[in-house]
Write a structure and sequence with these properties.
By secondary structure, this protein is α/β, with parallel strands linked by helices. It has 2 domains: 318 residues, Luciferase-like domain (TIM Barrel, Alpha-Beta Barrel); 87 residues, no CATH class. The protein contains 15 helices and 14 strands. The strands form 3 sheets. An 8-stranded parallel beta barrel has the order 1-2-5-6-9-10-11-14, surrounded by 6 helices. Strands 4-3-12 form a 3-stranded antiparallel β-sheet. It is globular and about 70 Å long.
Length: 439
């Protein structure tokens, strides 16, 4: 008998609301409001129609600055994430609702209460993307100044999450509530939690760190990892590394989903899709945006340089900082050397170099080829699924749901209906009441 074909590994999909970044193409006439509730409703309902696991919101706590001016790609007035997700809970039925909230500028009791409330109001669809913030610039908006040394940000986040879970677990099903008495390095919490146990017990926890500390935090505590490792080789390395850390915490590979953020461009032919993708990248990286990206590496004013000319022949200033509210480049000299080598090898201008080096991994092609590549990517253990970051608000997912999702379903690589009601059930995650490593 010939061997049976290996069944398709099921793909998980999520939708990222586009916005404060250079992924969004604001100049496109189809680009809509970043603030109006109808934009969020459109994207969320499209994702739910496509049977996506969850809808994902990023959040910034301060408008970024560049050379003392508000960064052009920042948006004033975007609604606060949890407020918005509670509103979306009323106009969706199965779609998970994921909000980014900092573990640096909040307190465990208050945030545990807010996420438990969202989980109740949505019927078990809440998720928390746990992020850390180490810069004093953002902390200027908060009472205590907010500065946290980089060495402490993950220790605080780990204790924050552990304290939140103590609070959620203090309200067990069919048992009397337990008092919480947490005394740690960062937090002291005593008393009873004020919200009944929510449908999921714990909201799904998402994490996006890529440093060794971030990978360890993900292996110990996260349910989903949002990564930028979208290339096949890098994706496999990251996947194997993080999954390989799970046994030390009594966890199984299925207990953690790895989902890179990716873009996509669809065309009737490969050539058409590639042409569209090139035009989108040119729109995403304007001449001004290219110089800003260059200044973030070099740390000095480069406004006199021609974006269509060669890269600077001067070295970066290791202490230069023109941008505030962004993560600083760890080794600017190494980045500059890499960009110069690429520019020389391919004859690229400043703008062309930025376009080539700052774009996320994209799936570019016909609906058939994109469906095949996505299925192969997941089947090859480079990811468990993808968080799609469309370049248009709010209709950027429409074509993917209409043209790619049915093909994934035909391949047997994607669900044809929701089989559960909670986000944990969509993702195949364990019940938090079950001890780790146990069936």
């Amino acid at each position: 008998m010939s061997p049976q074909p290996r069944p398709h590994k099921q793909i998980h999909l999520a939708a990222h609301f586009p916005g404060v970044n250079n992924t969004t193409v604001w100049a496109d006439p189809r680009s809509g409001s970043q603030i109006d509730f109808s934009s969020f409703v459109h994207l969320a309902r499209t994702a739910e129609r496509g049977l996506f696991d969850f809808f994902f919101l990023a959040e910034g706590l301060r408008l970024r600055e560049h050379q003392g001016r508000i960064h052009d790609l920042d948006v004033l007035g975007r609604p606060e994430s949890l407020t918005l997700l509670n509103a979306l809970a009323a106009v969706t039925e199965r779609l998970g609702l994921a909000g980014t909230v900092s573990a640096t500028f909040n307190e465990p009791y208050e945030l545990a209460r807010r996420f438990a409330s969202l989980d109740h109001l949505s019927g078990g669809r809440a998720a928390w993307n746990v992020v850390t913030t180490s810069d004093a610039f953002t902390g200027e908006n908060f009472r205590r100044g907010g500065y946290l040394d980089r060495a402490d940000r993950y220790t605080r986040a780990a204790e924050f999450l552990a304290t939140a879970r103590e609070l959620w677990d203090s309200r067990p099903v069919d048992e009397p509530p337990r008092r919480v008495d947490h005394q740690g390095r960062h937090f002291t919490v005593r008393g009873e939690f004020g919200v009944a146990r929510s449908p999921q017990g714990h909201p799904v926890v998402i994490q996006a760190g890529d440093s060794p500390e971030g990978r360890e935090f993900a292996a110990s505590a996260a349910d989903v990892v949002f990564t930028r490792h979208g290339g096949l080789a890098a994706g496999r390395d990251f996947y194997a590394d993080v999954k390989g850390r799970l046994p030390a915490y009594g966890r199984r590979p299925a207990d953690l989903k790895i989902m890179p953020g990716v873009t996509f461009v669809l065309g009737d032919t490969l050539a058409e899709a590639q042409e569209q993708a090139a035009e989108i990248r040119r729109q995403q990286v304007s001449p001004q945006t290219a110089l800003v990206a260059l200044e973030q590496v070099w740390g000095v004013d480069l406004s006199s340089y021609d974006p269509d000319g060669p890269l600077p022949d001067i070295d970066p200033d290791p202490d230069g900082e023109l941008a505030r509210g962004r993560v600083r480049i760890a080794d600017p000299q190494a980045v500059a050397d890499r960009w110069r080598a690429l520019s020389r090898a391919k004859g690229l201008s400043i703008r062309e170099t930025v376009i080539e080096t700052t774009g996320r991994q994209s799936f570019i092609g016909t609906p058939q080829s994109v469906a095949r590549e996505m299925a192969d990517f997941v089947r090859g253990d480079a990811a468990d699924g993808f968080i799609l970051v469309p370049h248009l608000t709010p209709g950027g997912l429409d074509s993917f749901v209409a043209r790619v999702v049915p093909l994934l379903q035909e391949r047997g690589a994607y669900r044809t209906e929701y089989t559960g009601t909670t986000l944990r059930s969509h993702l195949g995650l364990p019940d938090p009441a079950r001890p780790v490593g146990k069936d």
